[in-house]
Write a structure and sequence with these properties.
Distance between the termini: 55 Å
Radius of gyration: 22 Å
Order of helices and strands: HEEEEHEHEE
Largest sheet: 7 strands, mixed
Number of strands: 7
Helix content: 25-40%
């Protein structure tokens, strides 16, 4: 190249632009937002996301899906968290049996009994329970308990 020449800039061809658009559409088609009526976030995010057979939730709160109220008691919030988790995994096309990992967030680590009651109710078979980890919630959190889950759903929709 001559020193006075600038390098050639390659403008994408119509075919290249079409292929890029197809790729973006394929990637969007692979990812599916899962939102459940009554459980939507105040921010523009879904309750969960599914790609192929994998489902990852965002934070699931202990609100009542009908009244949108957050109960004051840990037992009530725990019951709602597990009911909301089930509603979300079912909206993704799965069941409680498809959940492979649950992250529990507690404001007070001594509140495990209320969580364990709901845990055993949803996952009664000790030989077939998901992995679980408990983490702290900030002390100023309005929630006493929250969770996130990962599920593997064998039949893709």
């Amino acid at each position: 190249m001559h020193p006075d020449e600038s390098p050639a800039v390659h403008a994408p061809t119509n075919l290249e632009l079409s292929q890029r658009s197809d790729l973006a559409e394929d990637q969007q088609a692979m990812r599916k937002s899962i939102s459940v009526k009554g459980l939507s976030h105040r921010h523009p995010v879904p309750n969960a996301c599914r790609i192929g057979n994998m489902v990852f939730s965002g934070a699931i709160h202990g609100v009542n899906a009908t009244t949108h109220e957050l109960p004051a008691e840990i037992a009530d919030q725990s019951a709602n968290v597990f009911a909301n988790m089930l509603a979300i995994v079912e909206a993704a096309g799965g069941s409680a049996q498809d959940v492979i990992k649950v992250e529990i967030y507690l404001r007070d680590s001594h509140d495990r009994d209320a969580v364990n009651t709901e845990w055993v109710r949803m996952f009664p078979d000790p030989g077939s329970r998901p992995a679980r980890h408990v983490r702290p919630l900030p002390p100023d959190s309005p929630s006493l308990v929250q969770c996130e889950f990962i599920a593997i759903i064998e039949d893709s929709p």
